[in-house]
Specification:
Distance between the termini of chain B: 20 Å
Number of helices of chain B: 9
CATH superfamily of the largest domain in chain A: Thiamin diphosphate (ThDP)-binding fold, Pyr/PP domains
Radius of gyration of chain B: 17 Å
CATH superfamily of chain B: Thiamin diphosphate (ThDP)-binding fold, Pyr/PP domains
Order of helices and strands of chain B: HHEHHEHEEEHHEHEH
Helix content of chain B: 40-55%
Distance between the termini of chain A: 31 Å
Number of domains of chain B: 1
Largest interface: A-B, 29 and 35 residues
Radius of gyration of chain A: 19 Å
Largest sheet of chain A: 7 strands, mixed
Strand content of chain A: 15-25%
Structural class of chain A: alpha/beta
Number of strands of chain B: 7
Strand order of the largest sheet of chain A: 3-2-4-5-7-6-12
Strand order of the largest sheet of chain B: 1-2-3-7-6
Number of strands of chain A: 14
Oligomer: heterodimer
CATH class of chain B: Alpha Beta
Number of helices of chain A: 13
CATH architecture of chain B: 3-Layer(aba) Sandwich
Order of helices and strands of chain A: EHEHHEHEHHEHEHEEEEHEEHEHEHH
Number of domains of chain A: 2
């Protein structure tokens, strides 16, 4: 077996921005003193005249982005998810969401896989916040291939987009040669009819590993669905899974409140009620530690997915 | 400024003030005090200074205006209606269900509104973004923003000010409508923003202090702002909250209250008297 290639989606973001800068002169990139961490530095190096560091002032950065968009530019505003979605929530809501301006928000360092920096920087609330804004598109890519496609799709989409990227290098699970990204469309990664695991972001790879174990060691054929676009969510693929497999387990690196799990519950409850079990950060704050250890500690390890499926199948 | 132009602007401003009262009275809610204090500035901008296109409101070369103190929408709407962006009848439907004119400016639907505002402190950031876009695209349009003196208590105003000066946004001119009052009372009693001019100067602005009801001073200030290169300009306009409506002048209580029928008659009479004097 070939070596697994690992890459953090924040790197995919920065590199794709630098590519897009050459293709579209309307793209302007903003950061709030985190260019080296969010990887917008890749764009800054190639297009310094279209890169603006707003300093440590995320609320203002979102307003600047709104003004740029109102004047025809395609601004990408970047910071850590905590400060982009959290601190600047109201600016995003009122200055970007309400006028439906064409602003792209690149939020990196999402979830507890931020690691050692600890709870203040581990944002597990951003999806909940962004989902509540009318017209906001939310993309949470699972790997490098998907993240690159997502950034390009965000440019094609007219309107606000929130993109969620990670700090941790994660395995590339999508073949760039054959991968096709369609905004708002989930992807069936693995067929199966015993139960469905619906995952997003870096949890998709873990869900696939869990599905392998379930099949090989327990004879359970779990369907695995990758929901990269959390809003608008792919209702059809969820309803089909509910009808065909009867049970759903959702897996996300986010608070179980307000994230993918609740979005799936909303669809299932309305259209085809079946049991849904949510795996995610269980309504608590994170803590310091290496990212991979934290994922285990907070119930986002492969084993917890396997056990949860076995308990509920 | 020649007398003829000054008289014309004063008459227009008086009509705009009537529009403010009409709108707020019919809506039975809204913010007359600050709308009346910013009226002369808005009148000058839309009738003399700004390059705008009522029949082509989204023209990419237009000058932009952001009402950062978005609650003073009644003044902006009355000016836009007077300037021909939409029918004056819309004023009477202000704040009603299904109406074009929302309680706070809505750029998505209202012709001539360049930015949706209402949450204080945010409009100035958007204005900076527009000014930056103008620079990036080598456009010669200018961007104006009006802020309240209470509004500048918002920290975002100073984040934006730092950004504007750092990026040498000399195509940006902000106006602080310094009427001295906010909802809870005098700005100096609530949480003093003074000295306002020294603060903006320290943040890297060219600053000008004027009487915000004197058209000659208003004209001179905006002309100077246009000539200053390498830095943005902040015009601190000393104004009277509730200007020209006798019982509203300098009363914080008229920040966000609508007149009743009797008060409406008094207010309109006050403004008719102002107009009668202007018409000699």
């Amino acid at each position: 077996m070939a070596d697994v290639i690992k890459k953090a989606t924040r790197d995919s973001y920065g590199e794709t921005l630098a590519e897009l800068g050459a293709e579209n002169e309307n793209i302007v990139v903003l950061d709030a003193d985190l260019a080296a961490a969010t990887k917008t530095i890749n764009f800054k190096k190639k297009f310094p005249e279209r890169f603006f560091d707003c300093g440590i002032a995320e609320g203002n950065m979102m307003g600047i982005a709104a003004g740029l968009a109102a004047a025809g530019k395609i601004p990408f505003a970047s910071s850590f998810a905590m400060f982009a979605a959290g601190r600047a929530f109201e600016q995003i809501r009122n200055s970007i969401g309400y006028p439906h301006l064409n602003v792209k928000i690149g939020a990196t360092h999402a979830g507890i896989s931020v690691g050692e920096d600890g709870a203040t920087h581990q944002c597990c609330e951003d999806i909940a916040l962004m989902r509540s804004i009318p017209g906001m598109v939310i993309i949470n890519p699972s790997d490098d291939t998907e993240a690159r496609a997502a950034v390009r799709a965000a440019v094609e989409h007219e309107g606000p987009v929130y993109m969620r990227f990670g700090r941790l290098a994660v395995p590339v699970i999508n073949d760039p040669e054959t991968y096709h990204f369609e905004l708002g469309k989930g992807i069936t990664m693995r067929e199966g009819n015993d139960i469905t695991i619906i995952a997003t972001g870096l949890m998709v790879e873990r869900a696939l590993n869990a599905a392998d174990i379930l099949k090989n060691e327990h004879g359970v054929n779990a369907r695995v669905i990758n929901i990269h676009t959390i809003k608008p969510i792919d209702r059809d693929i969820i309803v089909r899974a509910a009808k065909e497999t009867g049970k759903i387990v959702t897996v996300e690196e986010h608070n179980i409140i307000g994230g993918l799990g609740e979005a799936v519950c909303g669809v299932v409850c309305e259209e085809c009620p079946v049991p849904v079990i949510r795996i995610g950060v269980n309504d608590c704050f994170g803590c310091s530690g290496p990212a991979v250890e934290l994922l285990e500690k907070f119930g986002l390890g492969v084993d917890n997915i396997v056990q949860t499926v076995l308990k509920n199948k | 400024m020649n007398e003829q132009l000054e008289l014309k602007l004063k008459k227009t401003a008086c009509k705009v003030r009537m529009g403010v009262i009409e709108g707020v009275y019919n809506a039975k809610s809204g913010h007359p005090g600050g709308s009346l204090s910013i009226t002369d500035i808005l009148t000058y901008l839309y009738f003399e200074k700004m390059n705008v296109f009522p029949n082509d409101p989204k023209n990419p070369d237009r000058d932009r205006f952001v009402l950062s103190k978005g609650h003073c929408a009644p003044a902006l709407y009355a000016v836009l209606a007077e300037r021909g962006f939409f029918d004056h009848d819309e004023i009477k439907k202000l704040r009603k269900v299904g109406a074009l004119l929302q309680g706070h400016p809505d750029m998505k639907h209202i012709p001539g509104v360049d930015m949706s505002t209402g949450s204080l402190g945010q409009g100035i950031s958007a204005a900076c973004g527009m000014a930056l876009a103008g620079k990036l695209s080598n456009k010669s349009y200018r961007v104006y923003a009006a802020l309240g003196d209470g509004e500048i208590q918002e920290g975002q105003v100073w984040e934006a000010s730092m950004f504007a000066a750092h990026n040498k946004l000399d195509n940006l001119c902000i106006v602080v409508d310094s009427n001295g009052l906010q909802i809870d009372g005098s700005v100096n009693d609530v949480c003093s923003p003074e000295p306002i001019d020294a603060k903006f100067e320290a943040f890297g602005f060219n600053t000008i202090v004027i009487d915000g009801h004197d058209f000659a001073q208003i004209e001179k200030a905006f002309d100077e702002a246009e000539k200053v290169k390498g830095k943005p300009t902040a015009i601190i306009a000393k104004t009277t909250k509730g200007k020209d409506v006798s019982f509203m002048e300098n009363q914080a209580s008229w920040h966000g209250t609508a007149p009743n029928a009797e008060q409406y008659e008094i207010a309109m009479n006050d403004l008719k008297n102002v107009m009668a004097k202007l018409e000699g």
